[in-house]
Amino acid sequence: MAGMSMKIMSIVLFLALVSQCNGNMCEEGDVSGLNITQTKTGRQVHGINEWQVDIITHCLCSYSDVVLNCSGFKTLEPIDPSLLRIQGKHCILKQEIFAYPLSSASFKYAWNTSFPLNALSARTACP
């Protein structure tokens, strides 16, 4: 009986995740399945807070070349260009976020406060 309950819970969780992504339908450039969170790491760089940015998918789609709004973005901590490339007012995430729920990409930066990063576009691929 416990095995049956676990199967039912798994199905409900799967359906809940898929429903957050419009039934798993993605369109080119659709970023509605991405969630961006920022948390303090507890580390300081030259006396300034370090922040970790996590970009998480709740869909069954892969995301690549995610473009973030970075207008005014600053950091005292160098960011590895293989993770994130800053081009003027845009930042391009160079990590792929794979096609399964809760897959994520991340990078860190150091500044007094968190910066309001939001996804503008991305290349998507859905099963």
TrEMBL record:
<protein>
    <submittedName>
        <fullName>Uncharacterized protein</fullName>
    </submittedName>
</protein>
<dbReference type="InterPro" id="IPR040361">
    <property type="entry name" value="TPD1"/>
</dbReference>
<dbReference type="Pfam" id="PF24068">
    <property type="entry name" value="TPD1_C"/>
</dbReference>
<keyword id="KW-0732">Signal</keyword>
<feature type="signal peptide">
    <location>
        <begin position="1"/>
        <end position="23"/>
    </location>
</feature>
